[in-house]
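Input record (one chain):
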Amino acid sequence: MPRFPRPGRDRFPHLGQDFAASLVVFLVALPLCLGVAVASGVPAELGLVTGIVGGLVTGLMRGSSLQVSGPAAGLTVLVLEAVREFGLPVLGVIVLATGVLQIAMGALRLGRYFRAISVSVVEGMLAGIGLVLIAGQFYSLIGAEAPGSGTAKIAGLPGALREAAGSTTATASLALGAGTVAVLVLWPRLPAAVRTVPGPLAAVGLAALVAFALDLPVAMVEVRGLLDSVRPPTPSALGDVAVLGLLGTIVAFTLIASAESLFSAAAVDRLHTGPRTEYDRELVAQGAGNTVCGLLGALPMTAVIVRSAANVRAGARTKASRVLHGGWLLLFAALLPGVLAHIPLPALAGVLVHAGAKLVPVRALATLWRDHRGEALVLVVTAVSIVVAGMFEGVLIGIGLAVAKTAWDSSHIRLEVVDKGAGPVQAYLSGNATFLRLPKILDSLESLPQDRPVELDISGLHHLDHACRTALETWAERHSTTGTDPVRVTAG
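The corresponding structure, as predicted from the sequence alone:
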């Protein structure tokens, strides 16, 4: 019997699976978009705008077919600092410049090089962000104003919690936020039938019901309307790009957003057996999305592992699922904006506290400490530096430490001494002789008998830098001044 083509089914063979997955991703993304926006100090609707652009713009482009983009908890701290320092109108300029830089890097095929960044630095960066995010959101849980710096946030927590204990409003807010965190922690342990509803949506929905039923005196999301929240950069704001401090912020946004997106792509590739990520194209796609977000004055976007993993686990097969999820966000923002006014801020803070805790790799750090203590040290120093010094400075410190560690690890040097009791002492150097190992080399050579001739064989060296060469020549001259025969060097 002849088979007649079915245009919709044949052209989109996985539409049913992608449609179902898009609904799951939408339900996961909705509370996260709102929470990231509120925590970043911008109108909640701007988080939805970034999520919409992540689906409808970045989602349509080539790169990583199942990765989902939107506002990310990993950039929350950096955005909050930028808004406080430069103001909300300049945020669009920063995001626009970030997008243009990402497109340029992708066009120059630099995307693959982000995979060369030490994983410990990236994990340390996310851990530092997570710690600052958790500390900052604790203030939101009690309805208090958070200090500016990461150290001030952490140092001020005990006092803020003591003050909250005497306030009925703060206590109610803290209880609602703590309940939200508890739901998120316990949700994966519930039966599979219950878990068809994504945890973040369930937690926020339950918190809203409790706040309404008990008439709790807690703060709610402020609704301004989607179009009222969108504010394209003004010409005067565009002129601020040349400010030195702003340039540093743009570089930080670009590096962190790009690294997080491409590392997320690598993680998503391990979750499915479909097409692999094209890193340069993915960087261009992220750049295009951020360019549009910048023109709309919205939050920056990255690929988000929580949404991406939900997309894969929900059975998505093509990029149609992430495009559809952007459409659902747009419909929600256009048709149901009043729902936002019933969402308690402590619930969104609880979602962000839970997300921040997942950024801190406690178990991975314990394993890393047992097997690779140097990498664990890089991770910890990067995280602490971000908390103490700030995002950009902390990442630079982490990268510098990782480079130094790599240089140290590659500078393996071995000295083998053969002394037959008579005749010259034979010394064989092998490995990489760099200035980092110079003290060890000199200590070993200076311990050789001063009254015996020495034959130094350096043919086993793969690398001999200028500092080591000069030091060896100086040692050879000193050794020969004792009256023994000159040191004989064999280079092979």
